[in-house]
Design brief:
296 residues; mainly alpha; two-stranded antiparallel sheet; flat
């Protein structure tokens, strides 16, 4: 009887193990299937824009084309028209200039503030960090009138310097939040040991802390550039000349001037701008998550 019971027990355990393996495989397959479906849904606008930019229409770019013609080899005429016959290249250059300057200003303001919040153990540190993040949530529609007065007083209207002045109000709060998380992940003991070895606090930060948080700093720079490149309300309010407009307002307001005949070229422009930004953001996604994760 003991032998029969033992064999029965062994068969039951083997059946449970096989069933556990099957359930694990099914669960993993379901997760991958959902992830693949979500990726396809997110990539669908990029794929549609890419396909649309390279297919033929009946009249060519800038003409009354009508329906898209399928069954023909891809064509680059719409992309060539975008770069040769529209102000799109100027929009891209303006976006690069503004985004780069805003990233530098953001880092210069956010890094010292984040260091103070991360290293100064005060009771107001956490409330101050929350208050800074809440500033980021204030919609631009409530602020652009006040900023318009400031920009007009400084004589920066219709200049991308107005955007360099205003955009840090969007990028600095969230950058302070992220950089504080990165700096809190660095043990204080490392910095104190460098100070014991003779470095000042600034020297210890430059020699020890900065290399450790450098990937996070790069992630913040990418985030600041992405936020400034995608901002619409301030760009539409403060800049209206074709030669100074960024992509976010230049494409919808000036490229086609409301004319649907250039929509295939506009699709190409949207993909040209959006894909590099999406790839850069995805490259540092884990850093963004690490920055908002609480550290003790």
């Amino acid at each position: 009887m003991n032998g029969v019971a033992a064999r029965t027990r062994a068969r039951e355990l083997d059946r449970q193990r096989r069933w556990s393996v099957v359930r694990h495989v099914v669960a993993r397959a379901a997760v991958y299937a959902v992830a693949a479906g979500a990726a396809l849904v997110c990539a669908a606008p990029f794929l549609w824009g890419l396909v649309t930019a390279f297919v033929h229409d009946r009249g060519g770019p800038g003409a009354s084309g009508g329906p898209i013609r399928t069954g023909r080899a891809p064509t680059a005429e719409h992309v060539r028209f975008l770069f040769r016959s529209t102000p799109f290249p100027a929009f891209v250059v303006n976006t690069l200039i503004v985004g780069s300057l805003v990233a530098v200003v953001t880092l210069a303001l956010a890094l010292p503030a984040a260091y103070a919040l991360a290293r100064l153990n005060r009771s107001w540190g956490t409330p101050a960090r929350m208050a800074i993040l809440l500033v980021y949530l204030v919609p631009p529609s409530l602020l652009f009138l006040s900023f318009s007065r400031i920009v007009a007083t400084l004589g920066l209207a219709d200049s991308f310097w107005a955007l360099v002045l205003v955009y840090p109000t969007v990028t600095v709060p969230v950058s302070v939040w992220l950089l504080t998380g990165f700096l809190k992940a660095v043990p204080v003991d490392i910095e104190e040991q460098a100070m014991v070895d003779g470095h000042s606090r600034l020297g210890a930060f430059a020699r020890v802390v900065a290399p450790l948080v450098f990937p996070g700093v790069v992630a913040v720079v990418v985030l600041a550039f992405t936020l400034s490149a995608g901002e619409f309300a301030y760009a539409l309010t403060f800049v209206w000349s074709n030669a100074r407009m960024p992509v976010s307002t230049g494409m919808p307001a000036r490229l086609g001037n409301g004319d649907p005949l250039l929509w295939q070229s506009m699709q190409g422009g949207a993909v040209f701008v959006a894909v590099p930004l999406a790839m850069a953001a995805n490259l540092f996604l884990d850093r963004f998550v690490a920055g908002v994760t609480p550290h003790r």
